[in-house]
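Researcher: Please generate the 3D structure of the following complex. Treat every line as part of one assembly.
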Amino acid sequence: MIVGILGAGQLARMIALAGYPLGLKFIFLDPSKDSCATGLGEHLHGAYDDPKLLQQLAQRADVVTYEFENVPADVAAFLASHTQVHPSPKALAVAQDRLTEKTFFNTIDIPTPLYAPVDSLEELEYVMPTIGWPAILKSRTQGYDGKGQSMLKSATDLAGAWKLLDGVPAIVEAFVPFDREISIIAARNAAGAVVFYPLSENLHRGGILRVAQSRVGDPMQQQAETYVLCLLEALDYVGVLALELFEVNGHLMANEFAPRVHNSGHWTIEGAETSQFENHLRAILNLPLGSTAAVGKSAMVNFIGGLPDSAEIASIAQAHLHLYDKAPRKSRKVAHATARTETPEQLAGIVGQLVALANKVDNT
Amino acid sequence: MIVGILGAGQLARMIALAGYPLGLKFIFLDPSKDSCATGLGEHLHGAYDDPKLLQQLAQRADVVTYEFENVPADVAAFLASHTQVHPSPKALAVAQDRLTEKTFFNTIDIPTPLYAPVDSLEELEYVMPTIGWPAILKSRTQGYDGKGQSMLKSATDLAGAWKLLDGVPAIVEAFVPFDREISIIAARNAAGAVVFYPLSENLHRGGILRVAQSRVGDPMQQQAETYVLCLLEALDYVGVLALELFEVNGHLMANEFAPRVHNSGHWTIEGAETSQFENHLRAILNLPLGSTAAVGKSAMVNFIGGLPDSAEIASIAQAHLHLYDKAPRKSRKVAHATARTETPEQLAGIVGQLVALANKVDNT
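Model: Done. Output below.
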């Protein structure tokens, strides 16, 4: 079986590493010459919308998937008309546009922060009394890791924030004074079977995920499962999906979802019976899904902009290094390390060490 | 860093899969066109003693290692004179010849079964009264998975067994009425640090390993560690090494060692904090060695000659599939599956299921 992946970054890399033991081969389509997954399969080198390369991918792959959600709609449609594609173009379309996404959440009774579409500075000024302060102005499409976002604290911020957007369609969202940011990762296969991972509790800084920790037995698990199950079924979704949520006063609100494997689930490589990467493959190949049971207590620390020293990580007995083979560059995720321990106290100790190592080389 | 590997079979494949997260790249030298590791790195396609390819390998790899011990001595010497090679040509030389190996064990006070070199039928007849019955006649070199071996039960077996050897130098060994076959896998890095895995208890049938089970807290652990440490230090060994032992009446005797990662250690991928494959890489790169602590109870079942059904394995919650991308062929190891559980009872249940699946497709 050959799996085609649009994108050859670290997510594609980790999908491929999980797929070899299942006997799979991989073809990646990616415009970058030295993408980090290219050693792990064949690399079709060119634009994501290159018709010839897409045709090759569709012809040769038994199933095609993505490592990012900003796949042009016509590309997804072309692939879907020529081969099996998971997740579906519909899931991509919903995830790509923050306005569609939020509206979709509300349609299926998943609460979100207050939001409004804005296409001009006048509209922004008009809706702010309803949205309330503070709020966040975001481009409707293309943003990730906090890019294309501005915090609005008072009326004096509006003009500047609007100018930064440079005329792209936008959405303004009420800022939620959340107690925690969490995410739930779930997988659904074509037969409709669904599995849920234990919640991840996530720590962002500067809009970038820094630490994700598995939370076995979290009191919010059930509510999160209910929401993500709704979403998976409403989208007739196949594959792994990550739903990011805010916890506020014991209630959950959806922030966004990613129709793909997710940074907050990297701890599942060591910390779950079956990793999110393997379960994504199982789902899109319609194999029985693997157990998501936690293996010990675990957490993941991202290395942003600077590479960790392999020997330093290797000297920590319960740490596991994951380099992405990416050159360090400002704000770029270049590696992560997982800690897996028996007790929460041990975990806290190792996470502390890893965070210190990540801060030492941080460049954001 | 680029790691060169002589051989591109399943061991090289699993070394490479463990090496990507450490940021490594791989070059394999292997005569077979469609070897199972070739998707995971560059493939130099040709004979192991092809001077041009060896030169390429030596020039481009930062360190070279092997997935099998029958590397011609001049090949090992050539590589060692041009680049870093681990394990050393000396370790290979000792492991390649059963006579040298047994003698080496005895030199460093590791007990073995009685043995004697035999170069003619007359010599065989002469030594048998000393060796005793039953005994095993083996070629001194090149044997694996029971190939080139004959059981000698009485004097009438000698002529036939000798004829089968076809004149190659041989060794006759007393057959040990062992209580158990076990192996200990250990790693030593260039700095001299050593780690030991929990013992593997191994079950062979038809000379081929079928099941290996991790034995945490086994009463023989200490004695096995003492022997393998002796061996590692006597060879000034760098890398992972597997020492196969017989247990007889509470004592251990060495059968043989493999200067490489070993089939009886495949359970370490899921069942140990750091796998034997990652620790082999850490050792030859002189990184700190990883913890060998067991993660749960685990065991591995080999699939010989026939491929498992992926969906059947995937439907067993605590089983993990490892396909080698090899076409099934009589007596060929094509896959293994690991079971990892909380309790020995759960383990026994899943191993039973996996053995049944392996027997269903067995072709030996």
